Prior knowledge:
Layout: E1 5-15, H1 20-31, E2 35-45, E3 55-58, H2 70-88, E4 92-96, H3 101-109, E5 115-118, H4 122-129, H5 131-143, E6 146-149, H6 152-161, E7 170-172, E8 196-200, H7 209-215, E9 224-228, H8 234-243, E10 250-253, H9 258-265, E11 270-273, H10 283-290, E12 295-298, H11 301-307, E13 312-314, H12 319-331, H13 333-347, H14 352-367
Parallel strand pairs: 1-2, 1-4, 2-3, 4-5, 5-6, 6-7, 8-9, 8-11, 9-10, 11-12, 12-13
Helix pairs in contact: 1-14, 2-3, 3-5, 4-5, 7-12, 10-13
Amino acid sequence: MTANLNILTGINRTSAPSSGSMILVNDLYGAMPETHTTFLGREPVDQAWQGAFGQLIALSTAKRPHGPHFEHYLDELTREVGALIEKIQPHVIHAQYVGFALSEAFVRTAGNIPIIAIAHGPDVMAAERSAREREGLNKVAAASAAIVAPTFALANRIDRLTGHRFTDRLAVIPWGIYLSDARGRDRPPTEAGPLSLAHAGRLDDNKSTITAVEALTLTELPHHLTVIGHGIRQEHLKQRAIELGLGDRVHFDPFLPRAELWRRLANYDAFVFTTRGLEAFGLVLIEAQAHGLPVAYSDLPSVREILGNTGVPYAPGDPRSLAAALDGMGRDRHRLGDLAKAALHNAHRYDITTTAHRLHALTLRVTS
């Protein structure tokens, strides 16, 4: 195999930095050495976003990921992907989201081209809920030379879902960010008192932002919370904050481009992470820590794995547990300062260049 790998990959979504997974792949393939990557996405394409890829192709097959028309949709997508593979002739395929439709189309059309499956979390959640999704995950796993997960906790869930048939194919490669672009705060702890809190991410049931909102009604200190993001639960969250009399303590901001989010992080005392179900990794946690923010986090296996004792855990989905954690942080600013130092130290374990080099090395092994 030559040093210049020709990689085919893609995510069956709008080609823009609209989620953690999309931001990750943009960073990952931009940092990967000696490669040419063709990325399959969807219209509209954010022209400023596609610079990480040698080529970005927008899929034309109408997307129908659920319901009675799924098999027909998968057949159509397979035909389109097969024609692209014939044209591109990649050395290797990186199948993002194990078991989702695009990955199944890759499996159907790869022929002798090796596949590395890369798990992101929603694919594993879907397989745990649905027999059809579980079947798809197993098909992709069976056809893959390696299956990459960002944490051992997520790898173990995949191992269970596949009946331990592919344990030797599982590889853990933690995700990362461009640490060189992050600027840690140089702000000493101040006196004890209420905290200015940030929460950022998709506003849906699993992310459980409602836990942070309801926790503020149970705290003894009048903390303030800024919720940054959008999603299906946004209006419900706003209404719930008003119902609880928190209109002056909970502020909602729209989704922010990463550069703007990173600039804003320095304005807060701490970061709140509220996911209550499966979390693959939690890149936003590393983003917050890289900017020197202490983190209160829901104590999930993957999150505990990447943060350890560098944050303050609380019981997932439990507003009372989170309230106690926030008050404890607010009353002890010396501890808050220690947590800020620990956060910066921990974040430096997760540089995207390390992620890229490890995935590149695995890809070379698979293709040779």
